[in-house]
Write a structure and sequence with these properties.
Elements: H1 2-5, H2 11-34, H3 43-70, H4 73-78, H5 82-95, H6 101-136
Length: about 140
Amino acid sequence: MVKKYFSNHNKIIVSTWQMIFGTIGVVVAAILMEWGQPIQFTPISIFILIYTGVIASSFCFTCWYVVLTKLDTTVASISLLFVPLVAIFLDWLLLGEKMTVNIAIGALLVTIGVYLATVAKPKERRKIERFSTNIKS
């Protein structure tokens, strides 16, 4: 929808509206699910709110909207498959989580799949297009 309807709009404004509507939805869900629970604000909880709200959400969504204007939607969307891989790697690196053989194989398969979909497929399509052009001539 962003690429189709808002590609000519300022990405920061689009991201701001998206964050406003998302915040309203999260607040309504929190009120319905957490009604009556005490809220405790600590320095770490405030830091987490600011980080997830401003950096991890607003900044990243704005970057995502810019990327969507530069790349094909399919290529940009497939690259999102790397998000869990980055999380797994950072869990291993920063938190000392165990890296199992199954996780490593899964990460390798995802990487191969992203490569095939974004690099190998376009080359194959160009060959097919060139071949079909030669047949028509």
